[in-house]
Amino acid sequence: MMKKKLIKQLGWVLPLSLLATGCVYQTKETWVDTTSNAYNTSVPDGRSSVVFYRQADAVEGSTVNIYVNGQYLGSLQPNAYRQETVCAQNQRFFAEFTNNDVAYHEKANSGDYYNLPESAVSFFKVVSGENGRPALQAVSPEQAEADMQGVQHQNHTLSRVQVADQCSQVLKKYTLQASALFKFDRASYQDMLPKGKQEIAAVSQDIKQNPNRIGAIQVIGYTDPEGTPQYNDKLSLDRAQTVKQALAGSGLDANLITPEGRGETDLVVSDCRKRHPRDAAARQECDQPNRRVEIILHGEKVSD
Q1: Dihedral sign of CA atoms 241, 245, 250, 255 in order
Q2: Contact 229/264 with Cβ under 8 angstroms?
Q3: Helix, strand or coil for residue 65?
Q4: Burial of 230 (0-12, 13-18, 19+ CB in 10 A)
Q5: Band of the pLDDT at 204, cuts 50, 70, 90?
Q6: Nearest by Cα to 193 from 214, 208, 179
Q7: What was the pLDDT predicted at 32?
Q8: How many Cα atoms sit within 13 Å of 96 on the Cβ side?
């Protein structure tokens, strides 16, 4: 009796008689979307680690894309997380449903900034934001530990986040009071006070002492909680842009300066409304530290 020939096809061993009928069975290549890996608690010196996670019922919609400084990290399905190592400094995070940002304008310009701690893991959960769109919320490690029970690692996409070989560090921060910079509730260069122009000139002169060490200059505007969040966001950004204009006019490289408006977030004094519920003048005085512009220098520190 003649033995049937055997043919090996993608791991299957099939009799020649089956091939003659045209019925060829092949293994199908599939992506393994998630794995049960735990997040990594080991963080390199001088870096920070961030975990973004999406609980099963966090937001209704398709996969959620996560961006770090405009660079794609990954797409989160329900009940999944991604982790990335980044520089331990101010970072911009943004979340959006897949295919919602067709021109990629928002991922390049939108998001919230966070000051990340060095050699630690920070956690951000996907929540339902304005109009049901995804948003990111910073949470404590304790809350993340409870939330992430059963949440698996998402691994079907490759991160495009680039981390510099040498992360810049915060060299110095200047805090300028808005009351010294601008007329009340104003933001243009024409509304800048003489004292404010003098303070910015002094900051510029100080920065010029070590120009080769400066890699970036952040200008961040803040307001008090009076008014709507939308109005405060615009006012704080307008003031930051005017301070950038003044710094560039003093001889600093405008390409190094990034203005940002954070409105009424990160209040220095958070209970002025509680302290002075019926005294507007007292609230305005209490809120003065909140109305400010910060100038933050990033660059390389010189070893001692």
Answers
A1: positive
A2: yes
A3: strand
A4: exposed
A5: very high
A6: 179
A7: 58
A8: 22
Question: Which token pair is 107?
Answer: 């991922």
User: Does pTM top 0.90 for this prediction?
Assistant: no
| Type of residue at 285 | E
Yes or no: say if 286 and 225 are a contact pair by the CB < 8 Å rule: no
In this structure, what are the phi and psi dihedrals at residue 60, rounded to the nearest 5 degrees? Answer: -85, 125
Where b means 16+ CB within 10 Å and e means fewer, 188-201 reads eeebbeeebeebbe
Task: State how far the Cα of 240 lies from the Cα of 187, in Å rounded to an integer.
Answer: 8
pLDDT in tens, 142-187: 999 999 999 999 987 788 887 766 677 778 899 999 999 999 899 9
Task: Give the C-alpha separation, 226 to 220, whole Å.
Answer: 18
Q: Which residue segments constitute the domains of the chain, with CATH numbers given?
A: 34-154 (2.60.40), 169-299 (3.30.1330.60)
Determine contact, residues 81/148, Cβ cutoff 8 Å: yes
CA distance 193 to 181: 5
Distance separating alpha carbons of residues 219 and 20, to the nearest angstrom: 73
Report the Cα 191 to chain-centroid distance in Å.
32
Residue 24 has pLDDT above 70, yes or no: no
Answer yes or no: is pLDDT of 131 > 90.
no
Amino acid symbol at 246: A
Distance between CA atoms of 136 and 18, rounded to whole angstroms? 55
Q: What percent of the chain has pLDDT over 90?
A: 58
Q: Which residue has the tokens 């405060």?
A: 232
Residues 6 or more apart in contact with residue 193 via CB below 8 angstroms: 180, 181, 182, 183
| Lowest-pLDDT choice from 54-68, 87-101, 241-255 | 87-101
Cβ atoms < 10 Å from Cβ of 287? 20
Q: How many CB atoms lie within 10 A of CB 74?
A: 25
Give the pLDDT confidence score for residue 21 in this predicted structure: 41
